[in-house]
Amino acid sequence: MIRPLSPLSRAAPFLPARKAAPQTVEQPPIDEVTLSSRPAQQRIAPKILLGALTAVSGLAGLAGSAAVIIHGAQKTAADTLKDMGAGDPQLQKNLAAVDLKILHLAQKEGVTFQLVKPGDDLLQTGALQPRPDSYVHDQLPQIQAFAAQLRDQPLDTVLDRLEAEQLPVKLFTIPTPGDLPFDPNLAQFSQMPQSIHGMALCHGAKTPEQIKEFTDLVKAINGETYSRAVQEAADRMTGFKRMGMNLTQQPFNEAEFRQNLINNQERLPLNHREINLLVPDLYYTSAGKLDNHDRASLESWSGQRDAKGELSTTGKINGDQNSIRGEYFKNKRILVRQTEVSKRAPIHELGHAMDDLLQQKDPEFYQSWKAAVQKNYDHMMQNLYGPEGGTEPITHYAETNVGEYIAEGFAHYHLAPDEFKAKDSKFYESIERFVIRLKQLEQPAAGPQTLGEYVTSLFKG
To answer: Strand, helix or coil at 115?
Structure first.
């Protein structure tokens, strides 16, 4: 930092020249004369003059420096947001509620904004990332070791570990009739145990090659767990057949029937409700292979249902503003509808980005902090709207899951802090800790950013 000239050095040339003192003893400078060294008239006038000149000159210099610094801070914020793709004036005004250090950190880590409108091609935004053929195959050894650790573990443990490891696998779940990703005709299977062939269809596989790739991966990932599921299913189906044959009193080759089931195990309905089967996080689409997040995004942003209720995805952003307002992608891109730039969506999505970023940058802090937030979220959900001691969420969307709870907290902290503190003071304190830690992760700027910091720096020398 360039140190400014001291006010005294600027005022000194305007002081009247002093006459030589008649005494032979050396006199101290005017601004160091004590009250007893000169008559009152002689010592007060120069002091007043010096003080006035110093004050005027100093304030002028300070005001000029402050103006430059404040202007520089504003320019820095604008440049930071432009670098993040947030050049829209309304979007900049909205994001001005967020601390500049957090915006600096987000920009430095590659977080970007992109505004979209109906008719834009979702794939051309760069937010979706089609997966290469090696997406799951390259990580298969790690996935297999991970799956072996989860064998016979409780469902909650499995879900927690899946979230923590972030491997390209997920627990298979049967899609509901209204949420089938590609083929509404699969609705008939929604309440039935599913074969791995049916799992492949639920993941959009259509060609024999796609179905074989998916089913082979399910077998390889689950290993002994898959074999056990097949044996259990064969026993169950054989038992049903035995019951029916006993009722009709017809002969029945049980061993042959059971072996035939195992030989056609790809179509054997497995009891996935009791046996945790992991499947690749891989969906086959016209856009290429996507993971579950991007597949759901493709449907949310561009999916439209026809008169029969069948879902089609064109890749074009749809006109339904109720479907999705904004989204954060793992490639650190935030999509926001053009109509939402002045609303809460941009800061909400930035909250997702900062949540993801803090987990990467400081996992030790994040683990402890997230545990406290999870506890608060669980308490809220258990006591939601209760008659006594019940809790009210800061927004209804905060009830969705703990991730949305955090993002809504981040938005509320910046846009409605008083309301936030009144509704959920513990969660408010958690988000405040979150914000403080993010600011600490951003290296301090080379010079002061505000007038207060500038004045403080002068006293520090």
So the answer is: strand
Torsion of CA 196, 141, 163, 442, to 10 degrees: -150
With b meaning 16 or more CB within 10 Å and e meaning fewer, what string describes 267-293?
ebbbebeebbbbbbbbbbbebebbbbb
Q: Which residues of the chain have pLDDT under 70?
A: 1-76, 174-193, 309, 321, 386-390, 443-461
Question: Alpha-carbon distance 382 to 391, whole Å?
Answer: 9
Amino acid at 312: S
DSSP letter at 24?
Answer: S
Residue 220 half-sphere exposure, CB side, CA atoms within 13 Å? 16
Residue 153: both structure tokens together: 């573990």
Tell whether the torsion through CA atoms of 264, 267, 272 and 277 is positive or negative. positive
Burial class (CB in 10 A: 0-12, 13-18, 19+), 394: buried
What's the whole-model pTM score?
0.68
Round to whole Å and give the CA distance between 385 and 391.
Answer: 6
Helix (H) / strand (E) element for 10: namely: helix 7-11
> How far apart (Å, rounded) are the C-alpha atoms in residues 259 and 27?
115
419 SS3 class? helix
Looking at the DSSP bridge assignments, the partners of residue 280 are 169
Helix (H) or strand (E) holding 313: strand 311-313
Report the greatest alpha carbon distance in the chain: 140
Residue 233: phi, psi to the nearest 5? Answer: -65, -40
For residue range 386-414, list pLDDT tens digits in order. Answer: 666 567 789 999 999 999 999 999 999 99
Full set of structural domains in the chain with CATH: 86-118+322-445 (3.40.390.10), 137-281 (no CATH)
Q: How far is CA 176 from CA 25, 197, 198, 279, in A?
A: 101, 17, 14, 18
| CA–CA dist 411, 54 (Å, integer) | 47
